[in-house]
Amino acid sequence: MKVSSVNARWILDSRGNPTVEAGLQVGRAWFTASVPSGASTGTHEAVELRDGGRPFHGKGVSKAVGHVQALGKSMKTKDFKSQAELDAFLLKADGTANKKKIGANALLAVSLAGARAFAGSKPLYSYLAASLKRKPLLPLPFANVLNGGKHAGSSLKIQEVMVVPTGAKTFGEAAQMVAETYQSLKKDAVKKFGAPAGNVGDEGGIAPDVSNVRQALDLVWRAVEENGHGQKMALALDCAASEFYDARTGAYHVDGKILTPGELLNHYAELQSQYRFISIEDPFHEEAFDDFARLRAVFAGKCQVVGDDLLVTNPARIDRAQLSCSALLLKVNQIGTLSESLRAAQIAESFGWNVMVSHRSGETEDAFISDLATALACGQIKLGAPARGERTAKYNRLLRIEEDGVPLARFKLP
Ligand code: PGA
Ligand code: ZN
């Protein structure tokens, strides 16, 4: 792949903050990609380079954009044979362990635009699947229909209550079940808690002012049943527990209580036996490898334990967590290049884990992750609610891929 020019710009993300978009020109065609941004970010994520200072309240990305332009100059003399070669070039240019020199946001924009350039006129998912020697498979959506934690202004500490259409036969059916549930949920929440309960959080899910996760789970499950989907849908949680962990005391402030790790584990076990959720993410804080492992043992055969802030899509941390998790949350911007993300998925799979490709709470219209999850054939994708353009872009891309005859995954516990 000979890149004839590279450009970069800032564009706005779904929270109104700037983010990086890069474009690579190969022949006469341009290939672009933009990067998402988290709010409940893990401490060990690769560095998202921000300008600081007054513009955009410190969140400007002009340095990162400048770095893409500078990379572009040295890329023009090269002929990249593969994604691995392109990403190795990017890593070498940065040279730091956490991408702080060039910025993971700058590197990722180039890496993802590069993947599109390698795909050329082929659909991205089919090019990626072929390069991974996998048969494309549409992922089951994990749809965050009720937002809490840092993504909402409510008292709910648990960050996400998701629905998973495990009984769907097609992605279209899955998306329909999610959309129907979402509409009922909104209506029920407004009826029960008043009009503000229908307002949405950063990922498009409603954000009623409930104070504990039971109320949230009851509300969501009622909406599932109202639509007759009780036999075909399951629940899932992202606790994002680092956000309610008090490092000073070692306790968790959640659901109106102050809990030790052991008490929190029992709380989760009780909740799981009642609500039968099939997936729980970041149940403990981002260094709690042992507490994760204890929960994984308790939940074996019942519920997958997903590592997000714990793992940050980082091969070294995944290695350390072999007994702590049973699924990897894969976020490309946590690590900064596509090749490293693929490597993370491969390590997780070698442990017998599941892999869930994920969006961020700050997103763009770019639906790269829909193609990526399909190509990896990992069977799971974490999306927001079926509302707001940056969220629906991912659903809609999967609906279009389905027209190519790609089948939908079935849920399986690790
Ligand atoms: P974030 O949230 O993008 O704000 O980190 C998503 C998640 O925690 O999974
Ligand atoms: Zn998370």
Folded structure, characterized:
- The protein folds into two domains: 5-121, 2-Layer Sandwich (Enolase-like, domain 1), CATH 3.30.390.10; 132-402, Enolase-like C-terminal domain (TIM Barrel).
- The protein is globular.
- The mean pLDDT is 97.
- By secondary structure, the chain is an alpha/beta fold.
- Helices cover 39% and strands 17% of the residues.
- Bound molecules: 2-phosphoglycolic acid and zinc ion.
- 2-phosphoglycolic acid is lined by residues 38-41, 159, 238, 240, 308, 358, 360-361.
The number of distinct β-strands equals 14
Bound ligands, each once: 2-phosphoglycolic acid, zinc ion
Structural class: alpha/beta
Poorly predicted tracts of residues: none
CATH superfamily of the largest domain, by name, is Enolase-like C-terminal domain
Strand order of the largest sheet: 4-5-6-10-11-12-13-14
Count helical runs.
13
Largest sheet: 8 strands, mixed, barrel
* Average pLDDT for all residues: 97
